[in-house]
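Figure 3 (text version): structure tokens given as input.
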């Protein structure tokens, strides 16, 4: 039952200060975050791609509160695009962006986020890579999908993320299952009310399977974002039954989680993409990782108590 508490804590400034100051935090963060600087993220990309893995990079930041921060997020991604092109890695690494980091929550946020993310998508296309729009809490879904629609008129390879714990997601999957569409399906990692989202894990899992069937039967490119062995096996079975080739879908997992499974899928010939976050604004991301995996939380709390 600590999961919802941790999700709420992920947006608490007071708890952020406590967690950030704890000596044990840094080693745990390093497990899930590639580093704070661009150079560290590029080192992670080189290491992963050398082992046959592909990458999507996330410059950490969300819930931006002023336009200057939104511009810094844009510029960080433009620098990332330049680095990928300079090192010849654009063909193996794409980028994931949260529109809240581009000003989505500010006054006029929809247009502001679109104006900030468009140069990033343009630069990515010029470099030979692409962008996927991460999905955040349910209040942002309509705006994010509207931005996606506008971007795809010029850059049809722009991807989207859908979360199976939302009631609406099956319909969104149907809308995005067309030719050329790239969709990462995840279970969801934000605290959502029962009016819009399934609260029981079994219901979330069932929804995930229903959504996965829609995407795999469609004409788009499904990206299976899950560490759950059952979902991986179901995706493989669906791909086999529907006649999908190995390059017509991919698996995605988080940096630092189930590394052996990532390498197993690569060895079997699957396309396996690792979600690599980096940057100084790691707190919200870190807390959501703890909420998702009780083992991570137990280890962190024991270490915290031991240090004290």
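Below: residues designed for each position.
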């Amino acid at each position: 039952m600590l999961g919802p508490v941790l999700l709420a804590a992920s947006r608490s400034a007071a708890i952020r200060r406590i967690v950030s100051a704890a000596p044990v935090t840094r080693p745990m963060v390093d497990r899930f975050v590639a580093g704070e600087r661009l150079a560290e993220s590029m080192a992670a990309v080189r290491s992963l791609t050398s082992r046959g893995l592909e990458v999507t990079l996330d410059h950490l930041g969300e819930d931006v509160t002023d336009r200057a921060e939104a511009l810094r997020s844009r510029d960080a991604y433009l620098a990332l695009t330049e680095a990928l092109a300079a090192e010849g890695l654009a063909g193996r690494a794409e980028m994931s962006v949260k529109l809240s980091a581009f000003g989505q929550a500010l006054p006029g946020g929809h247009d502001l986020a679109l104006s900030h993310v468009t140069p990033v998508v343009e630069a990515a296309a010029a470099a030979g890579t692409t962008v996927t729009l991460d999905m955040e809490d349910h209040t942002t879904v309509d705006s994010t999908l509207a931005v996606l629609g506008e971007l795809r008129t010029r850059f049809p390879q722009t991807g989207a993320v859908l979360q199976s714990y939302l009631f609406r997601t099956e319909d969104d999957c149907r809308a995005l299952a067309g030719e050329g569409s790239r969709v990462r399906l995840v279970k969801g990692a934000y605290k959502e009310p029962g009016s819009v989202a399934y609260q029981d894990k079994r219901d979330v899992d069932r929804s995930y399977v229903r959504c996965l069937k829609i995407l795999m039967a469609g004409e788009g490119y499904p990206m299976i974002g899950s560490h759950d062995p059952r979902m991986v096996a179901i995706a493989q079975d669906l791909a086999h039954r529907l006649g999908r080739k190995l390059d017509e879908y991919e698996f995605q997992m988080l940096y630092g989680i189930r590394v052996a499974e990532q390498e197993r899928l690569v060895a079997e010939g699957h396309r396996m993409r690792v979600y690599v976050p980096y940057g100084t604004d790691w707190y919200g991301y870190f807390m959501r990782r703890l909420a998702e995996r009780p083992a991570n939380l137990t280890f962190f709390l024991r270490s915290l108590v031991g240090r004290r």
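The first strand starts at residue 54 and ends at 59.
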